[in-house]
Amino acid sequence: MEPSERADRPVGINDVAARAGVSAGTVSNVLNRPERVSEATRRRVERAIEELDYVRNSSGRNLRSGRSDSIGLVVLDVTNPFFTEVAQGVEDVAAEDGLAVVLLNSAERGDRQRRSARLLAEQRAAGAVVMPVDGDTADLLWLRKQGVSGVLLDRGDVGPEVACSVSVDNLAGGAAAARHLIGLGHERITFLSGPEGLEQCRTRLQGLREGLAEVGLDPEAAVRVVHTAQLNAESGEKAVEEVLAGGPGRRPTAVFCANDQLALGVLKGLGERGLSAPSDLSVVGYDDVATASLVHPGLTTVAQPKYELGCAAMRLLLGELNDPDHTHERVRYTPELVVRGSTAVNRR
Amino acid sequence: MEPSERADRPVGINDVAARAGVSAGTVSNVLNRPERVSEATRRRVERAIEELDYVRNSSGRNLRSGRSDSIGLVVLDVTNPFFTEVAQGVEDVAAEDGLAVVLLNSAERGDRQRRSARLLAEQRAAGAVVMPVDGDTADLLWLRKQGVSGVLLDRGDVGPEVACSVSVDNLAGGAAAARHLIGLGHERITFLSGPEGLEQCRTRLQGLREGLAEVGLDPEAAVRVVHTAQLNAESGEKAVEEVLAGGPGRRPTAVFCANDQLALGVLKGLGERGLSAPSDLSVVGYDDVATASLVHPGLTTVAQPKYELGCAAMRLLLGELNDPDHTHERVRYTPELVVRGSTAVNRR
DNA sequence: CATCGCCATTGACACGTTTCAATGCCGCCT
DNA sequence: AGGCGGCATTGAAACGTGTCAATGGCGATG
């Protein structure tokens, strides 16, 4: 057996150069600007690369260029299908330009978001797509100050003078839910919200109220708000009791949840009490995650274009990276109501 | 306003050194071995770091050390909650040791798995946790040859002489499902499998057969296999027709699905035909994803310790990274059946 | 035949960090 | 007082790559 590996020292560009009988610079050219090197030597170099199993060292490369060729995607909860679908969109578009995507999970925690931002800055990431915790854009701005272009996605808000952003019109989403429920004759609606202070929830609630006001209903009287600790199914399930109990007025005939996860929890909670949607309570969710169409009855929900959201964000980022004098853009989608079985006309 | 940023050249360790009136080496020491530097200078350096907003460049650091401090996690489908829960486990354990996790999505495609492996090799990742596409461990082995320690997770198989691995006993899982269904009086069972050739599916099926044989039933007569194109809900929904049609014998009274996603699709498909589990068909899934407990009826399923799987894999990897003379281990979990409403005694 | 220009290739340097042997300083012991 | 040990700090080298001005060879042109 021949000594195929002369030493355990990793093989570098110089080893390849030696083997092919050329200089290191030429090898680098073969890798990065193949057109500048003659056919013959290019083949010799390529063979050497293959024979030595050379893989280039991106530390060296990035050090030299001052920039890495991967972008970061900071997501609020890898476990939530909404975010992973967004991630798909980002990945697919990034792949078109040969950029690698590093998926980072802030788990809705400010400290982890900060850690992620630091990591990306240390790696001199080419860019970042950030869905900020609690709409806290400080880390995004810090990243930009460090020279890492960042795009804001889905939450939070910054002026178009500082960064690109992609969002969905939560006001319109809330209003769409309102119109749907009104059309079915519901006039006492509970809004099941997440933790207090989430801008996202507040806006959807406001949309709901405005939708009610549109047809002359008094939002204050018609809607009651219940807060939960987290935007997940468990919280939704626990909240059922409080939702059903009703407010100072009567028991509600419909509930509009800030989130599909919450809504799914509510559906489960109803089942456990021998009740069900829509006969005992009409239920509307928000997001249209895959599960929404799998449960029975299907969940009526305000659908967000998740995949497109990711694509759009990545496109904006690419635009900023490639175009030297780029001007920030704001892309805003309008959500669409998807009607399934969890809502029906009010019979009370 | 003072010129807070003298130039747009990024600030490096030398700028910090100059500002603090020390050498670059000392700054490096403050960062990496603070105990070697005197209290006074340490504070001076820390102040300079803060004032200049210095963040260290990991390219330089990694170049010097020959190794990066992040590990890669190659996952089959970011969209599937099973994998994201595993990812959580990996992340949490990695965080204990200050390692960053780069989540890469192979999307069940061999070429993307290869690309991911290449990326990790180029970055000289500290290690990798790989869930191989089709059990194809070639890329894992290649990574190891490149000096990147890799742990095998959930699928595929390599001897303990080449790498650590973590898996769940699919044979036992299949048998558990079998015993449950037999106990309920089912004797004609359809196994709803994924694409042909998936080792994972084959083993679960074999477990099912062995479970039946245990009580003297003829596996060949009792179980029929239906293949789907993908392991997702859509495929499951489409397969309902074929499942219900039954084989050369009678129509089945129960279906055991290779995957919760498939099972959820089946439940939906039944509903669309005015049928339901468990009265028309008992349904058993595999994985116990969150949705399994949210649908109505709840999905009886073979639960895998997803989070623990991720933790275990990362622990093994850490062990290999820290212990110079490390010997590979094989960790194997036993799944547990979770009984919910989608299965009942056979009344036919 | 001499000169010019073109093209492929080279060689050296820069990127930002870590490491390690060498330096200088101070206090302690004899 | 002189010498020695310990400790904080320094300076230079090294990591692997990309870039760019300089080099050398070759063919074409006058």
From TrEMBL, chains A, B:
Record's protein name: LacI family DNA-binding transcriptional regulator
Record's keyword annotation contains Thylakoid: no
The species this protein was found in: Nocardiopsis endophytica
PROSITE patterns xref list: HTH_LACI_1, HTH_LACI_2
Positions in coiled-coil regions: none
Membrane-crossing residue ranges in chain numbering: none
Cross-referenced SUPFAM superfamilies: lambda repressor-like DNA-binding domains (SSF47413), Periplasmic binding protein-like I (SSF53822)
GO molecular function, one term: DNA binding
UniProt entry keywords in alphabetical sequence: DNA-binding, Transcription, Transcription regulation
